[in-house]
Predict the structure.
Amino acid sequence: MRSSLSSPSSPTPQIQNSEKLTQQSPTPLRCEWDFTLASVVSSPTNCAASDTLGVVEFDPSDSLIATAGIARKIRGYRLHNLLPQDIDHNATITQLDHTRASDFCICTPAKLSSLRWKPNANGRILGSGDYDGVVMEYDLEMKVPIFERDEHGGRRVWSVDYSTVEPVVGASGSDDGTVQVWDTRCESGECVAVVQPSVVRSAVCCVEFNPFGGGLVAVGCADRKAYGYDRRKMREPVVVFEGHGKTVTYVKFVDGGTVVSASTDGSLKMWKTEEGGGARVVRTYEGHVNGRSFVGLSVWREGGLIGCGSEDKRVFVYDKRWGEPIWVKEFDGGVGVGVGVGMGSGYGLVSSVCWRQVGEQECTLVAGGSDGVLQVFVGHKKRSF
């Protein structure tokens, strides 16, 4: 599962250039946000590895949260049901259980590795990818599957996404080393396009269409590279992001020409695409622990914040301007720790994160763990900034 289980292995990394890729800003590191743990959603029984939450996704309205993982269940939660009414003055953490807190629960035939809300569907249709190599769409009002395709030869699907320009077009990346682009209107199930980024068919761990409407489709692979394809002509990559030392597990767009990638080399990298097909590293982010697993990656574009999990059971927040984390929270219901303080409990991992894409003075980050616990954090901008 894209969380507690290991990510696809990359080839043995070559010796990297000794010159540091990170380009740090001369501005002193500072945190402009106060974060609070608002609520914890857990199981009333003892949590186990089978409860791992591998993906958390906000719907387009940013009011509904969907989660999935190894437990073969898609659960939906209304955000207003998870947050205290007066979080500014309520120091008590809201404790909930999944069964009572969830708005809906759909049982699935296989373990799930990915979820994605279908654009322009009014939050009604949710796409998924699973361990059996199947991509499905679910109608959340009817609680039934309405679309299914199995074109990856039974190999695990790690990632699914939809085009915001043509919402009927989606893509899936798989252990079979391919990205398949498909149209849900095609009854024959034929692919619009199939690409194999790596010559040796290294696993494709992530795929994301440019959410700002551009033509770029970003793909991350186990061969230590990320690739950018033109969705209108997906024969060869138009840009290659090369610089990570191990598997690239996630690629997320910051804006139309900037992406952030995550890798099991323990770093995040922000890349700027250039005219003519090049890409340069703007900044490298380090501090979290990530050597083998999927730990989640999400970008709050309005606020310029990056969130990720860690294999030492902590949540990390980076400001895109600085390479060090501005806030770290141990995933045990305790008090957030300062940057550079504490090493976490060493048990489990934070396996999924997702920012709510609204607000200016307030932000919301939702994170899921390998123990099946869901936590909701709310940040307020400090008055001095």
User: Anything to note?
Assistant: The first helix runs from residue 79 to 82. The CA atoms of residues 225 and 242 lie 5 Å apart. Residues 12-26, 333-346 have pLDDT under 50 and may be disordered. Helices lie at 79-82, 98-101.
